[in-house]
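Take a record:
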Amino acid sequence: MKQHYVLPQPAYTHYVCYPEMLGHYSQFPQHAERRSEGDLNSYNLHMVYEGEGYVFQEGERITMKRGSGFLFPRGAYQQYGSDPGQPWDVRWVHFTTVMPLPMLEEADQSRGYFFTFDPAAGYEAVFEEMYLLSAAYETRSEPRLSTLLYEILVTLMQNSQPLTGSVPLEIRHSIRRAADMIHAQCERPWTLEAMARLAGYSSYHFLRLFRSIMGKTPNRYLSECRMARAKLLLAATELPVAQIALQSGFHQSSYFIKVFRQLESMPPNQYRRLFRS
């Protein structure tokens, strides 16, 4: 199978990212490319779902199999291809972007970013919608195409790791599952030790991993979850402030009001009047 789509330049020129061409190759053993410096003036993302292939970087042959991928920056030398004996199932997109994502910056600096990802993370459904829109292209589809590409890039940035990375995907998933449980039960009197037990780590390792993966400490994340719930209850219910404080994990309403005022520059009742209107 060989799906291949080429899109015209968008009518609107200010998208933060936009696909130029994209496709899905499966059982296509002839798939191989070799581009000189400057040949391709767009980013080139490939994600492998089955089979095996390779990519060359600075003379080194890197194996690409299920759950691995590569991202070349604009103008980079590129050499890659499918193993003829085990043709890969690969989804790919060439795109332009003005987003300063760390993944893109890594590709720019090293002239190639090589990573692992979770094939079950939902990328396929996003690609499939992009293929449908591309096959029946209309100018009104441009915003959606840009949005879908953005979803792929940001999800990949959050859920992939370099081939030489030190935090395996399984650990990333365990930390994110713990974060989701903390968010869902933010009213509980969480301690660092209790949060760490959700992921099965010591407090020290949980703190280090959580900060690395989520970009903030567990306590900072918990506080943000509690404030988000409090804002929702203030705007969407008639509950007294004291009851909202309890349901948001603050066991003293006076402390809740103090923290709320510090973060929002207004007391809870003023926030309620502002956003209920």
